[in-house]
Amino acid sequence: MISGIANKSLLMTESDLKCRSPFGMILSGPTGSGKTTLLMKLLKCRDSMITPSPTSILFCYGEFDNHVVHLQQEGITVCSGLPSDQMLAECEKPCLLILDDLLSLASERFLTE
User: Fold this and answer.
1) Is there a contact between 56 and 77 (Cβ–Cβ < 8 Å)?
2) Nearest to residue 54, comparing CAs of 108, 95, 92, 12?
3) CA-to-CA distance for 20 and 83, rounded, in angstroms?
4) Is the peptide bond before 94 cis (omega within 30 degrees of 0)?
């Protein structure tokens, strides 16, 4: 028995922690809570954490920060603001789309269409 867990069916396995495409994920929290750190770790381990592994990654940001430069250096496509329909269509599939601090823009864009 593992420290207080009598029912082994409640234990999670490594495959339980994988994200299976298509999937959605929202990371939310105050400044300094580790959202960007978690994202960077997920991207670093994407081949083992996401099934199937994304062929392309599009990182769209609201505010430029140091991690944007790092992502570019890693070969990840970055864009300021929401991506155009054409940009999304040109992404090789499966594509991992990351919207960083763009929720207000997304709501505004889709509410006006």
Assistant:
1) yes
2) 95
3) 23
4) yes
- DSSP, collapsed to helix, strand or coil, labels residue 27 as coil
Report the distance separating Cα 79 and Cα 84, nearest Å. 10
What does the block give as tokens for 21? 């495409």
Residue 25 is which amino acid?
M
Backbone angles phi, psi at 95, to 5 degrees: -115, 140
Joined tokens for residue 1:
């028995």
First to last CA, the chain: 56
pTM of the model: 0.76
Question: DSSP labels for 6-18?
Answer: --GGGSPPGGGGS
The model's pLDDT over 28-80, given as tens digits with 9 standing for 90+, comes to 888 889 999 999 999 999 999 999 999 999 999 988 989 999 999 999 999 99
